[in-house]
Amino acid sequence: MNIQQFIEHLPKAELHLHIEGTFEPELMFQLAERNGIELPYADVESLRAAYDFNELQDFLDIYYQGMNVLRSEQDYYDLTWAYLEKVAKQSVRHVEIFFDPQGHLERGVAFETALNGIYSALEKGQEIHGISFGLIMCFLRHLPEEDALTTLELAMPYRDKIIGVGLDSSERGNPPSRFERVFAKAREAGFHIVAHAGEEGPPEYIYQALDLLYVERIDHGNSSLQDPALVRRLAEAQIPLTVCPLSNTRLCVVDDMENHPLPQMLESGLMVTLNSDDPAYFGGYLNENFSAISSLVDNDPTILAELARNSFRAAFLDEAQKNKLIAEVDNYLADQQIN
Ligand code: ADE
Ligand code: ZN
After folding, report:
1. Does the domain at residues 3-335 carry the CATH identifier 3.90.1150.10?
2. What would the pLDDT profile of 294-312 be if each residue is shown by its tens digit?
3. Do 209 and 226 contact (CB within 8 A), yes or no?
């Protein structure tokens, strides 16, 4: 088997994925038609042609416009189901996916509409494809903390369905320190804590995510490499960084895949996982992200397998579940003859 086939069948988890970022143009046009919404693009091709970003904000403007098509519980279900059908073919065993309730609430879509649609598709994914899951709700950091607090209140009755809270959207100028109170409340309520930090923001935002929000994982974390003391701290504590190679190049966080810092991250002892962020917008799902960096690690199956093990180690699963999934990777690797 060649390295591409090795990647395709390697058991793995997705830990950094915005479900609204899986909205493929074909489905977007279908749902727009179903809901009587006119998209500002003539067709799928011209929509795709707009996916040309110089920075995070360029993407976010289009991402929020895209999610405007989502209205009914069925829409959220169809979006999530389409995603699960896709990754079931990518040997994905476990997903922890984000949703942005505020991106729906501000358009008049009830919290429960999004939650129930996404959640019932995840349940069906577990049943039909055996993909275990966790759902994480993110606060939009370009909005005031008051809005995040209101959103947290809406989530309180659904602590059995939502395992964690995160922080996303426009990073520059919106430091984690603005959200200290809402994250303290979320922690108290027993949610797992993650935050996007160091995608476009400075190392200081990563320190704040650790010291003010008490994150268990950092989403992205690229700018940590500018600060050797921070890298040492992250490595020592084995705080996972959910790294997103295709996202990084599409959003110009990294100028070229050849220069992606993944090898440096691994050499520094950082606990790195590979993820797809917003695959419909960035040109690929989990396997495409593995393929994108494969040559940077000499197409070495042991390194790719270690990245897959990390995805299970960093997941919000109990030790028995993690060990079972890690053993699947071990067995898979032991069985392979790569040529
Ligand atoms: N929302 C969706 N994708 C995001 C990203 N890469 N960074 C920040 N917010 C996001
Ligand atoms: Zn993200």
Report:
1. no
2. 999 999 999 999 999 999 9
3. no
Note the pLDDT tens digit of each residue in 47-104: 999 999 999 999 999 999 999 999 999 999 999 999 999 999 999 999 999 999 999 9
CA distances 124 to 162, 179, 243, Å, are: 16, 34, 28
C-beta of residue 271 within 8 angstroms of C-beta of residue 305: no
Residue 179's DSSP bridge partners are: none
pLDDT in tens, 14-33: 999 999 999 999 999 999 99
Q: Tell me the catalytic residues.
A: 199
Domain residue extents for the chain: 3-335
Neighbours of ion ligand 2 (CB under 5 A): 277
Question: Whose C-alpha lies nearest to ligand 1, atom 9?
Answer: 169
Q: Is 18 in the pocket of ligand 1 (CB under 6 A)?
A: yes
- Report CA(297)–ligand 2 centroid distance (Å): 23
What pTM was computed for the model? 0.98
